[in-house]
Amino acid sequence: MFSIKSLAATAAILFTTAPLQAEVLFWSTQARPVEEAQAMREQVLSGFEAGVDYQPNEDGPWLTRLQAELQAGSGSIDLLGALHGNFSALDPETLMDLDDLGVASKSETFNNLAKLGTDSLQYIPWMQASYIMAANKEALPYLPEGADIDALTYDQLIAWSKAVHEATGEAKFGFPAGPKGLKHRFFQGYLYPSYTNGVVRTFASDDAVVAWEKFRELWEHTNPASTNFSFMQEQLLSGDAWIVFDHTSRLAQAFNERPDDFVAFPAPSGPTGRGFMPVLAGIAIPKTVTDAEGAKALLAYMLKPETQIATLKATNFFPVVDVDLPDDLPPSVKAAGAAVAKMSAASDANPGLLPAGLGDKGGDFNRVFVDSFERIVLARQDIRQVLDDQKGQLAAIMEETGAPCWAPDAPSEGACPVE
Amino acid sequence: MTDAATTLVDQSRTRSSGRWLYAASITLLCAWVIVPLYLLLINTLSAPETVNSFPKSFIPEFDLGSLQFFAGFRGMLEALRNSIVVALLTMVMSVLIGAPAGYALSRFEFRGKELFRMLILLTRAFPLPLLALPLAVLFIRTGLDDTAFGLALVHTTLALPFAVLITFSLFSGIPVELEEAAWTLGCTRLTAFTKVVLPLILPGITASAIFAFVISWNEVFAAAVLTIENRTLTAFLLQTLGEAPMHLKFAGGFILVVPALIFIFAVRKYLFAMWGIANR
């Protein structure tokens, strides 16, 4: 059976009129928006000779289809593209070990994450992004005196948003607190590291109470419609928000449509540094792959420097291998790239890692932070009490998964404790 | 004389205010449907900057950029064809299975009839994301996976309750005496059905077919999981639209809505005919 299929695949490569079956099926949760999907097909994957059927999906159908193929023991998916979080929710046994491919990212941290707790690479890091701040240039005159936009503190951000609020009569800070917004990453990767130098250990510390108090202050000057915002580029473009926080690729459209109207800048810093979090996407091959050779070839192709640059232009996700960036990058890439570079090079940089080792509890982990946000900021409940409540749930998740601490929390032996 | 004149005036006044109310309600109902569609059209035909700006103009500027983007989108036409094939298959199957069930429910007494009527609704009680996994496993094993027929089977299951309940009420609206008269005049059960009952309820059956069409057209999750090469338009477009920029959302929405609108427009007289029967 297998040999017939691979014969057919070889035959299809030999004859240029390749039938559909010969295409490598790339089943992805990334580059989903129509324009990005189109750019992936036309600019990134068109250079792969055997042809690629690139199919972006929402997380639900992506996972369901994959699970169905794994359970049925056969399928049509050749290559998986997804975020680290999607992969860590899978059983590593269902993914092929990829060590013998000889490709990996330049970052040891990423390569270790990609092992998913095993001894070998379960996916190959594919591309990375981060969360940054962006502002409408109309907001710049209201910057507090002496504040450097590239080295803001949370206090200055609050003062700035307040000044804009008072001058325009409208709360113009925008926060992606909508149903599809990535608010939990702000708490896990930005607020907590900046104020408590931790995420799990310090979840209910006194420093955390201060952090939430500060965020409440900021919320006073936040557009109350933020609970409906999920892609801050829309509010930047419409003018509903002047100062925003979001994922680089969720801000891209604003910079590409009106590059002269907006600035991108690093996330603010708190008492314990400038917390920020990388986003990591990877590529894996499921055990049920039909065209393993084609999938491996495509995987290697995706990691080539040229492909990585094309991917950057198409998706606003940055390369994970060493590349020389060209000069003709789109405005969004230039703006976001500069902001990320400043953020990671800042003297007080305090990078946090993506939650690791949580397995399928990643969603529950996020839930703890989202619930805390809703109770503290939206329902205005007592901070200390909410944190003490939520602490129990967080501790249960950590104990159940046995996940050790990740930066900026101090390393732990065994499960990361909630102190 | 004067009394009669006042009454006449009063009457005409009541009549004219009634007419006003009638016209106003009709206008409101039409606006309810047409205004969102019109806004969709305007934004589809607007440049990206106009889509994001406010206030909106009510005259489209005929910028075809957003639609052109989709014209170059690979696989659109194929997906459109798949959508139509699956929807037509769903229509045919749900009527073929649903109408006899509706007839049985209205004409025969059998044990468990009430339970059956309840159970038929149960197919809608389980969310598709829950059913999709076992279905997909089964489909992969049986070879139904990634076929229009397989997906149409799932959509038929979703459409069946409507088909059964609509045809049930239609059959109930036709007096059994009509059939009995046909029997006395030499018809068999089958010919009485085909010669007397069927012509009467044909418009209603078409209406239930339209429901099946719309249900199949709108379904995303099963389509996204059960098809890969043969995607339907909804599965193909909707997933990528959720995070797309506004102007493309509008254009994509427009593309999804138009074929369904054309279809419903084409068969609208059957829909009205069904309501005609129900009123009788």
TrEMBL record, chain A:
Localization of this protein: Periplasm
Keyword Cell membrane attributed: yes
Leader sequence segment: 1-22
InterPro entries to which the protein is assigned, alphabetical: Bact_solute-bd_prot1 (IPR050490), SBP (IPR006059)
Swiss-Prot/TrEMBL keywords: Cell membrane, Lipoprotein, Membrane, Palmitate, Signal
An example Gene Ontology CC term for this record: periplasmic space
Coarse class of the protein's main subcellular location: periplasm
Highest taxon of the lineage: Bacteria
Keyword Protein transport: no
Stated family: Belongs to the bacterial solute-binding protein 1 family.
Name recorded for this polypeptide: Bacterial extracellular solute-binding protein
Native source species: Tritonibacter horizontis
Organism ancestry: Bacteria, Pseudomonadati, Pseudomonadota, Alphaproteobacteria, Rhodobacterales
TrEMBL record, chain B:
Keyword Lipid metabolism: no
Domain ABC transmembrane type-1 as annotated: residue spans: 80-267
Keyword Heme (UniProt): no
BP GO annotations: transmembrane transport
GO terms under cellular component: plasma membrane
InterPro entries in the cross-refs: BP-dep_ABC_trans_perm, MetI-like, MetI-like_sf
GN (gene name): sugB_2
Membrane topology reported for the UniProt record: Multi-pass membrane protein
Matches recorded under SUPFAM superfamilies: MetI-like (SSF161098)
Transmembrane segments: 20-41, 84-106, 118-140, 152-176, 196-217, 250-271
Organism: Tritonibacter horizontis
Keywords, alphabetical: Cell membrane, Membrane, Transmembrane, Transmembrane helix, Transport
Any single Pfam family the record assigns to this protein: BPD_transp_1
PANTHER family for this protein: INNER MEMBRANE ABC TRANSPORTER PERMEASE PROTEIN YCJP, MALTOSE TRANSPORT SYSTEM PERMEASE-RELATED
Localization, UniProt: Cell membrane
Family (UniProt): Belongs to the binding-protein-dependent transport system permease family.
Official protein name in the record: Trehalose transport system permease protein SugB
